[in-house]
Amino acid sequence: MKTSVLEISNATVPGRIAGVSLALAPGVMAGLVGPNGSGKSTLLHVAAGLLPPEPGGGVQWNGVPLARIPILERGRRATWVPQEAHFEFGFTVRSVVAQGRYAHDDDGKHVDETLARFDLTALAHRPVNRLSGGERQRVLLARAHATAAPLQLWDEPLAALDPRHALKILLLGNKHTRAGGTLLFSLHDLRMAYILDMVVVMHEGRLRAAGKPADVLTPELLLDVFGVRAEITSSLSFALP
Ligand SMILES: Nc1ncnc2c1ncn2[C@@H]1O[C@H](COP(=O)(O)OP(=O)(O)OP(=O)(O)O)[C@@H](O)[C@H]1O
User: 6-84+149-226 has which CATH code?
Assistant: First the structure.
């Protein structure tokens, strides 16, 4: 059996999440869903090593406890994208994306290619605090992409994006995981969650279910967790031209 890229065991952060255990294998694109306040952001913080769980719980990356992984090595293995793309300072778009290479001796690799991939080349010299919300979100995702870290943890990456950019980000996530990387990202669009390899459902700070979307997102669970009645209908679908 393959070692989990990410293994969270019995993680508790008082008042936020309780006794959460989760394992993600290499090559998996997983969606983290749950109502507002159910603990998705908290779980992503814990997974990224930004918030320690209470004693008795732990996080491992590739079978190694986080406490034993030096900080720069952490930066090479995993990256986290915050929910809110807010910048205090007016660094240029290019310099923020280049920060993604910090744990690689600031080697500048992938930066121009990443700017192009995220449609940011024309904005490369613009201060990040003078961008639209969706543009700022793309800058943070581009910085995460530039790290080339195998474990990508994104908090609501699609929330501010237009349909074309949202689709591009999903396709990049798919490419990353097909190449053996792992992606865990939170989202509110349950229809989108159906196309992923795995879905993880949080409810009131606890992990309610994890597995294949069709097995997990049953009408009973959707009613119980989200308070919505689900119905399968035909709907609009998009593809890049
Ligand atoms: N910094 C904090 N300090 C204390 N409690 C917090 C903090 N941030 C969030 N919480 C609480 O922890 C719980 C989980 O919040 P979290 O942000 O993880 O939820 P979420 O599922 O990401 O929500 P949303 O969908 O609204 O982004 C909520 O009850 C929230 O009020």
Answer: 3.40.50.300
